[in-house]
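Data card: per-record layout.
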Amino acid sequence: MKNFDYIFTGAGLSALMTVYKMVLSGKFNDKSILLLDENPKKTNDRTWCFWEEPNGSWETIIHKKWHSALFAAENIRRDLDLKPYQYNMVRGLDFYNLIFDVISKQENITFLTQKVIEIEESENIILIQTNSESFSCSKLFNSIYNKQKAANQTKYPVLQQHFIGWFIKSEQADFNPEQATFMDFSVAQRGNTRFMYVLPASQTEALIEYTLFSKNLLPKQEYETEIQKYIQKLGISAYEIIEKEQGSIPMTCYPFWKLNTKNVINIGSAGGWTKASTGYTFKNSDKKSAELVAFLQRENDFTKFYKKTKFWFYDLLLLDILDRKNEIGSTIFSSLFKKGSPTLIFKFLDEETSFLEDIQVILKCPKMPFIQALFHTIFKIKK
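The structure for this 383-residue chain is written out next.
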């Protein structure tokens, strides 16, 4: 059995970001590090989007950027000037290639394509069993999401951001490559929070994604039927499908950090790193991984890592509303974007606003659902 200082079970976004930043810091060259994942990370299996000011740390792998976005609902169409932000798309394969190019040059880092079967923790050592080998370590970073932990409780709502997207190429110049469609709620809601998401790469190419914030997934055909209808609505008659993607991202304020021990930390979706109210993952993981690498240089007890903030509670209120009244999601987001400052809204969603700025955003929302959610949530948490 081979022993490592650090083992990462799961090599998704959060794990790869953390290891990458450990390398860049130059502070962990004396630590042996193992990454375990059954996926070799050789395909373009996902797309991440995030907003930030220009010339950020991921600039070299941004596939496409937009300075303008469209928000739409049944009776609303608003062009959003995103400055000083830009909306960025990163392709999964570009991200993997960047990270593995760096870590492949590090003699202290090993990546193995093996499936983790079991994790067993004792006081001073953690044992990991894969489908072919056994390993041990003193510190474990786990990003394998345990769906049952959140599902088997009733205190915290659990929704999903679930979607199917088509990358299409049309025969005509059907898209405006300078503007992304951030949310288009003009599609039939059917008792849920449903919207379209369009990321044009050129006048003829775009990712068109049908997305829901709700509890239950749909049959695959329903997503694809809605995408076909939307393409027709855009007036596109001749096109080919280049790629497809699909996913389901947990949206919950369940306190995953309470599952951390002195030597085992849950990261990524398994650690609550996904932004609970929106499902956005890239920017949150970027921040959390940087915090974790800094933490490792000064602390040895993983139970001290997480700190709850006011934004956790704001997210909890929205999820409580969408859990009980999923059909009013369009109304809530429309009230935010109809007249609100896009810059302030994105700053708020990035959890970088002051309390006075929080109030400016919150006052744009319909009052009664949030008042009801406040009392409902406080009662549930105190039970």
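Known properties of this structure: Residues 367-382 form the longest helix (16 residues). The longest strand covers residues 239-252.

See the next section for split statistics.
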